Amino acid sequence: MQQPSVPATDYVAALPDPETADNVAYNPSLNQLREFSQHLETTTEFGSPSYVSRERSRNAERTKNTVDHEFGPADYELVDDALSALDEMELVCLDRQMGRHPDNTYVCRYYVPKAYSRIALGWAKLFEPVESEREPDFHTVQLPDHEEAGVRVFPDEGFTAVVGSDYTGEAKKSFLRLFMYYAKRQGGLGLHAGSKRVELAAEDGRETVGQLFLGLSGTGKSTLTAHGLWLDDPEGATMLQDDVCALGPDGTVAGSEGQGLFVKTHGLDSETEPAMYDAVTDESAVLENVAVDEDGTVDFDSDRYTTNGRAVIQRERLSSAGEEIDLPEVDQIFFITRNPAMPPVAKLTPEEAAVAFMLGESVQTSAGDPNAAGESIRVVGTNPFIIGSEGEEGNRFRELIADLDVDCFVLNTGSVGPVDIGVEETVTLLRGIARESLDWERDETTGLTVPTAVPGMDIDEFDVATALSDPTSTLAELRDERDRYLAQFDDLDPAIRDARY
């Protein structure tokens, strides 16, 4: 691991004081931010603003941090050149609170040129107004018009410079990235995960099951986190967080975004995702890179701009969202994959769960790399925002779930061979797992622990041995690939590498 470099300039101290600088509009209202962006807005049929950005995904390949990368003169020059123009431009500056948990609450300060107030509008709707007088913990400056694109992160200083990109996701992740990094420094682990609370009827009254869903953007994480599991009163499921959480050593899961969610909209359907559709089509939403005609008609199926169309929605408009964002205790963790050689669900030992965490097997989406969308991909923790050793993240994950006695599962939301796994099948599995009503046995073909029978579902239809044309060769090749992948992590505990499946 590289030792953190020290910038030549104290970037935070060099930022304009928003309370005294003449060129800074400090904490303008949401209505003012929308007014500042009126020239860029197309008003939808729902009365909400819609904008089109130049960049339509994150600059993952151009993002560096001082923990994992050795910054050279060019890196500091990129930041220095961008920030040197701050005094010459009109800016907006916003303060927002990230998180509510006593150990995971931060004040975030965001600067962006006034001409790009649309980004500030979307960002401001994700996080809550600051409740205290404390000084900011984290600072981000986003300068979209800089000729060179790049994101430079100084984790220990709590500072991020986003230059050459006008994508709202860069503003959001600049703070969430640090939220996860600081959770690890406190002995926990930041997770790219959604969290939910499932309430079930029990003999002694009521049982609460806390669930986490880890998955890359676009693989069903938001859909499953927000799904009510078709439970009827007095039972039910409540979404707490959609994107980033912090798992503490005591089993609590701290949320980060208290006001809104940044959700994908491509293919959004009112019948399959009614709650999400209602929130996205509310006038309080902010749309980005969604196809909207001049008369305001919205087409969620169009890829006119990208398949990574987005909306910032308000939690209060999402019927599946609860008032709380923190989960008092986690009981079950699900790794979402779309590997066609995997069963619809498998139950994992702590070591196997750590392997699943390290493998992070899925498919690439347009949120990460539009040019590689649909291709197989492995991302540790399904989290492209890790700062520090990835092997140590896997070790920490295994320690936490073993200490907390958490049940872990790998959940396939794609297909088994050519046999598609629909939302109905996945929800049926999740409901049975929440109730702990499934029987499990070791599958000889995959070596994984799978359910023998599932009420309301023909689980035999998704048998790997039957669905794959040559399961022996396919799985042997897959295990070899996994072995080579895991071998690159020198600081990963050998017990985890040896637990491959």
List strands and helices in order, with pairings.
Layout: H1 11-14, E1 24-26, H2 30-36, E2 42-43, E3 49-51, E4 63-65, H3 73-83, E5 91-98, E6 106-113, H4 117-124, E7 138-143, E8 150-154, E9 159-163, H5 168-185, E10 189-191, E11 193-202, E12 205-214, H6 221-226, E13 236-241, E14 245-247, E15 253-255, E16 260-264, H7 274-280, E17 286-288, E18 291-292, E19 298-299, E20 310-314, E21 332-337, E22 345-348, H8 350-359, E23 361-363, E24 376-378, H9 390-404, E25 407-412, E26 415-416, E27 419-420, H10 423-435, E28 439-442, E29 449-453, H11 464-467, H12 471-486, H13 494-497
Parallel strand pairs: 1-5, 3-17, 4-8, 6-7, 7-9, 12-21, 21-25
Antiparallel strand pairs: 2-3, 5-6, 8-9, 10-14, 11-12, 11-13, 14-15, 16-20, 17-20, 18-19, 22-25, 23-24, 26-27, 28-29
Characterization of the model:
With 501 residues, this protein is an alpha/beta fold. It has a domain at 11-41 and 57-187: Phosphoenolpyruvate Carboxykinase, domain 1.
Keywords:
alpha/beta; Phosphoenolpyruvate Carboxykinase, domain 1; 501 residues; 7-stranded mixed β-sheet
* CATH-level-2 architecture of the domain at 11-41 and 57-187: 3-Layer(aba) Sandwich
Query: How would you write the strand order of the largest sheet?
Result: 1-5-6-7-9-8-4
Shape: globular
**Number of helices, counting only DSSP H or I runs of 4 residues or more:** 13
Helix percentage:
10-25%
Average of per-residue pLDDT values: 93
How many E-type strands? 29
CATH fold field value of the domain at 11-41 and 57-187: Phosphoenolpyruvate Carboxykinase, domain 1
CATH superfamily of the domain at 11-41 and 57-187: Phosphoenolpyruvate Carboxykinase, domain 1
Main sheet attributes: strand count, strand direction, barrel closure: 7 strands, mixed
In whole angstroms, the N-to-C terminal distance is 28 Å
In the predicted model, the low-confidence regions spanning at least 5 consecutive residues are none
Task: Find the structural class using helix and strand composition.
Answer: alpha/beta
Instruction: Provide the CATH top-level class of the domain at 11-41 and 57-187.
Output: Alpha Beta
Our Rg estimate from Cα atoms comes to 23 Å
Bin the strand percentage. Answer: 25-35%
